[in-house]
Write a structure and sequence with these properties.
The chain is mainly β and 413 residues long. The chain contains four helices and 17 strands.
């Protein structure tokens, strides 16, 4: 009797399990969740596709200073005078792929300096989006405020550059290296990956600005309104050749346009052209041997632009020329990286974005070292030996020489 009851219970349990299994299968079929039915992945929202990163640079320039009157307005507003500890850059970058062929990039700077007495203003540096014209994004158009494709060191991020400031010769072409416009870029996928590797692996690359670039932009430089109806036009050819274990990048670039010197940038009594319009055009050549482990960076440009003439007390169209050469070496010590470097530079010409298109003659040598104990921190010590003549309507005879030790701590996040 006991055996019969036990067998009966087992049968009921088996039948019940089968009925429950069939009900579960029916529910899954109704919900489209059987193993033969693929589960549709939840589509990511646009705000789930972007990344945030940034960096900050703190400097001190007063060690071993021999002339407090020596300065560089475009370089670092804490040079000389009463300069002390100084935030050069505080940047937070928002970027991401909104869709397969739409990319955005926004970079504000929270340490912009309006003058030597007005520091730490927030200001847009980059605000643009890239539109891919093919599925691989080898052809793309960039629209917004971004770096103008002129000069390797201009396009190289300050987060990666070895010397504390960009060279005067090519950087004088563009205040903050940027302007608002539209730029076409083309590069094969394999070369785009190479450009990315040169930055990601610490070889001080400039980033991906294409093998060929062409574009139009306002011409008054970043965060300034257009003051005439004539856009500047720029073009650039560049290629990073892989030769054995070395990568050599060569480039040729040029731009042309008409620039306006704003009235509030002109000293009373200084004469100008009609409507303060001046021809602004340059051509430059670049040669880069990436530090694997020995590196060379060299660029030179020539052209015409507005320039103050103290003998006529006028802003005139004048020729300009100049360039630089940087030698560096990459030393890896376990997880640490050390970059000793030396740079020499020369520039003879005007700076259109400074008072009266200030005339410059610069001879400068820098010896320094960058130490990276890890990815999140870098320290640079650089000794500068400088000779600068910079003259405008207020200072017609201003020749300064001097030496100083400059220090920078950088945090990457």
């Amino acid at each position: 009797m006991t055996k019969i009851v036990t067998l009966t219970l087992i049968c009921f349990l088996f039948v019940g399990a089968q009925l429950k299994s069939q009900d579960s299968l029916k529910t899954k079929v109704e919900q489209g969740l059987t193993s033969n039915t693929p589960v549709e992945e939840k589509k990511k929202q646009w705000f789930e596709t972007f990344t945030i990163r940034g960096y900050a640079q703190a400097r001190y320039n007063r060690l071993l200073e021999t002339n407090e009157n020596l300065g560089c307005e475009q370089c670092d507003r804490s040079w000389g005078g009463n300069g002390g500890f100084f935030f050069r850059r505080i940047r937070i970058i928002y970027f991401g792929q909104l869709s397969k062929q739409v990319y955005f990039y926004i970079q504000p700077d929270f340490a912009s300096s309006a003058s030597t007495t007005a520091l730490h203003f927030a200001q847009i540096r980059d605000a643009y989006f890239d539109i891919g014209l093919d599925t691989k994004n080898e052809f793309r158009v960039r629209i917004g405020q971004s770096k103008v494709p002129f000069g390797f060191e201009n396009m190289q991020s300050s987060q990666n550059r070895l010397p504390l400031d960009r060279n005067d010769a090519l950087n004088s072409a563009l205040s903050n290296e940027r302007d608002i416009g539209a730029f076409f870029y083309w590069a094969p996928k394999i070369i785009r990956e190479r450009f990315s590797m040169l930055v990601k692996d610490g070889y001080k690359g400039s980033g991906d600005y294409g093998v060929f670039a062409f574009g139009a932009y306002n011409g008054q430089t970043a965060n300034r309104p257009e003051l005439n109806k004539e856009s500047h036009v720029v073009a650039r050819l560049c290629y990073p050749f892989e030769i054995g274990s070395q990568i050599i990048e060569t480039a040729l670039q040029a731009y042309t346009g008409m620039v306006v010197i704003p009235k509030d940038q002109i000293t009373a009594g200084v004469k100008t052209n009609l409507n303060q319009n001046y021809l602004d055009q340059r051509i430059a050549a670049s040669f880069i041997l990436y530090p694997r482990p020995f590196g060379i960076m060299a660029e030179y440009n020539i052209g015409y632009g507005p320039q103050y003439n103290k003998f006529t007390n006028a802003i005139e169209k004048k020729p300009l020329e100049g360039g630089y050469a940087t030698l560096n070496y990459m030393i890896k010590i376990k997880k640490q990286v050390v970059f000793p470097f030396i740079r020499t530079q020369y520039y003879d010409g005007g700076k259109k974005h400074e008072k009266d298109a200030r005339r410059y003659i610069v001879h400068e040598n820098e010896i320094g070292v960058e130490w990276q104990p890890g990815k999140n921190f870098e320290f640079v010590a650089m000794y500068t030996i400088s000779s600068r003549r910079y003259e405008d309507g207020a200072l017609k005879n201003n020749f300064q020489t001097g030496n100083l030790l400059r220090l920078q701590a950088q945090v990457n996040f």
